[in-house]
Amino acid sequence: MKYQWNDEAKNFVELYGVDTRLIVDAVRAPQSVSIDPRTNEVGYPIKRLRRGDVEVVVGYREPEWPTILYVRLATPDDDQGPKRSPGGVSGSSVPPTMGELHRRITMAGYQVQTGGAAHPKVVSQTGDVLMSIPNTPSDKRSLANTWRDFVRLDREYKKASQE
After folding, report:
1. In terms of residue numbers, what domain contains 152?
2. 39 touches 45 (CB < 8 A)
3. Count of structural domains, the chain
């Protein structure tokens, strides 16, 4: 069976480097199936298909051409199934604090330059400024958005450096 991919699911898989074979396995041979509560609202079946740590939410508006709406991954401390991580992005490795964000950026080979009233800057080993980051999270999505932007820019920077 062929599947359509919602942009959100496609972006999640690409951003976090999830092997699409895991998602296809969860859809084709789930260990558990549950009906999503939104099924009644939208008027067509939406199923949550789970295999191992992978949960795939699939909409069956067109039964012959179902759509993968969302992908969620269980976190190591998750014993009840996939949930939202502290940063708010389901299945992600979003840092829960600004200190952890700085640590992960440093572990990736960058420096976090702070000083003065300006926002901290992520700087490469060659002195290129990759991005600026907030001093404090402004809302519940701030850490998740900053981490997502860093992961994307890191990937682009490393790809450009290899060319």
Report:
1. 98-162
2. yes
3. 2
